[in-house]
Amino acid sequence: MARTDSTRAAVVLLVPDAEDYLGPEAQARVDIDRQLTACGWTVQRHKQMNLGAGPGVAVREFPMLEGHGDADYLLFVDR
């Protein structure tokens, strides 16, 4: 028997976002990046750092002096 429009079943595919596979720290960084961007900050990686990109630049995972690890974020204003 052929199906008519009234008997068609709806199929919904749930496709997970790539973020669903991130660990808690990586997910937190995604959330922080979104919040900073929503507040007008330009978020960048330290290797692509351009302090003139905007009035507020947030640089992710900035390497500190040897033995001091990385800063999660360095915030630069009016540089």
Description:
The chain is α+β, with helices and mostly antiparallel strands and 79 residues long. It has a domain at 23-77. Helix content is 19%, strand content 25%. It has 1 helix and 3 strands, in the order αβββ. A 3-stranded mixed beta sheet has the order 1-2-3, with helices on one face. A hairpin with a 6-residue loop joins strand 2 and strand 3 (70-77). The N and C termini lie far apart (71 Å). The model has no long low-confidence stretch (mean pLDDT 85).
* Series of H and E elements: HEEE
> How much beta, percentage-wise?
25-35%
Overall residue-averaged pLDDT value: 85
Range of helix content: 10-25%
Helices, by number, come to: 1
Q: Roughly how many Å is the radius of gyration? A: 21 Å
The end-to-end span amounts to 71 Å
What is the β-strand count? 3
Largest sheet, spatial ordering of strands = 1-2-3
State the low-pLDDT regions, or none.
none
Morphology call: elongated
**Which structural class do you get from the secondary structure elements?**
alpha+beta
